[in-house]
DNA sequence: ACATTTCATTCAAGTCTCTTGACAAAAATT
DNA sequence: AATTTTTGTCAAGAGACTTGAATGAAATGT
C-alpha cells in the first residue's frame, strides 16, 4: 500500500498534527535563517527527512525530534503548545525560554529570551537579546517590517544601513527592517536589549 | 579592468544607491510573490540582469527601470523616496519628548515618553509609560492589534480582561489590544514600562 | 574621426535549496 | 515469527537565483 499522507488506523487522514508540527518546525528553522542542509548537518540527519517532516509526509521519531528542537533552541513542548486563545499574558523574569544563537551561525555570544512564545497569529515578535561581552550578531539581515528596541543594560554598537550608533542603557531605536542591520557588544560584561519587531517571515 | 561593484569616477565605491534601489526592487518583487524569471518575462529582460540589479551589481537603464516599475505596479519615484530613515533611528535617554496624559483625561499621574515619533507609515507605536506613585490609567480601552511591554522599574498592577497581574521589573506581557486593559502603580515611587503596540488606527 | 573605456544586457553554466521516489532497516502490529 | 508501517538514507531532479564571459552601444579621450 502506498500513501502520500500519514493517517491513523481507521483510514481518516490526519495531516493535521503532523503538518502542524512540520509547519512549526519549518517556521522555527526559517526564523533562524537556517537551510534544510544546515539544520540537517547540525542535527545529523538528512535534508530529505527534514523536508518530509516539514511537509507532513513523515513524522520524526522522538529521538529525532529531540535533536531537532535542541539545535533549534526550543523544547518539544513548544512544538505542541496549543495556539488558541488561552495563552499567557504575563511572562515573568527568569521563567522565559532561552534560545542560543551560537550554534546557528546567526551571531556569536547571543541568546534570545523569548517574550512572545512561538505561536502563529501574533502580530509582533519580541525577545530580549542577551549579548555576551564581544558578542556580535551575524551579517546584516533585511526583511520587511519595522523594529524597535530598548537597551536594558550594557553598551552596544548598532549598525543600521551605513550609520553606526553607540547605545547605553535607556537608549532606544527604531528602524525599518529592510535596512540592513546588525549589532555588537562593545562594553564590559553582558548587554541586554528588549527588542520588538513585526513578523520576520510573512 | 574588472570590478565587483559599481563606483563613481574617482574610484570610490558607491554600492549604496544602487544597492538601495536593488533592495527596493527585490522587496517589491517578493511582496508580489514573483520569481526573477516571472518578472523577467513580464518585463522582457533576462533573469540575470534582474539578479544583478537587485544585488547592486548593475543599475538599470531608465527605459529598463520604467518597464520594471510598470510591471510591479509602482512608480519610479517610490523607488527613490528617501527612506523615512531620515527621521532618526536612535533616541537617547533623556532627549525624548514627554507627553502628559492627565490633560487628556487618559490617566492620572501618567506621562508618555515617545520613542517612535508620530509619523504615518510606522507599523509600530512605542512609548515608555511613566506612572507616578498611585498613578492609574483611565478606563479600559479596546482597539485592534497587539501589545507587548516590559517593566523597567517600579511595581504595577496590570488588568487585562478579567485577569489581574502584579508586575515587577523584568516582567513582560503580551495581549491582544481588543481585550480591555488598564494599569496602575501599586509600588513606592515612579514606575516605568516600555510599551509597544501596533497602531490603533488601521 | 578613431580608438578606448564603460557598462547595461544576454546566454549559458553553475550553485544552492528544497522535493520526490526507491530502497534499507527498524519498529510496531498481527 | 511473519507482516505491515514507517523512520530514515541516498540519489536524482526541479526551481530559484548567481556568476562569468561575450556583445554591443554609448560615452570619453586623443
From TrEMBL, chains A, B:
Q: Does the keyword DNA-binding apply?
A: yes
PROSITE patterns from the UniProt entry: HTH_CROC1
CDD domains tied to this protein: cupin_XRE_C (cd02209), HTH_XRE (cd00093)
| Superkingdom of origin | Bacteria
Organism expressing this protein natively: Shinella sumterensis
The upper taxonomy is: Bacteria, Pseudomonadati, Pseudomonadota, Alphaproteobacteria, Hyphomicrobiales
Name the UniProt key words of this record, in alphabetical order.
DNA-binding, Plasmid
Q: Does the keyword Electron transport apply?
A: no
GO molecular-function annotation terms?
DNA binding; DNA-binding transcription factor activity
Q: Which InterPro entries match?
A: Cro/C1-type_HTH, Cupin_2, Lambda_DNA-bd_dom_sf, RmlC-like_jellyroll, RmlC_Cupin_sf, TransReg_Diox_bact_type
Kindly provide the name given to this protein in its UniProt entry: Cupin domain-containing protein
Question: Cellular component terms, GO, for this chain's entry?
Answer: cytosol
Which SUPFAM superfamilies does its entry note? Answer: lambda repressor-like DNA-binding domains, RmlC-like cupins
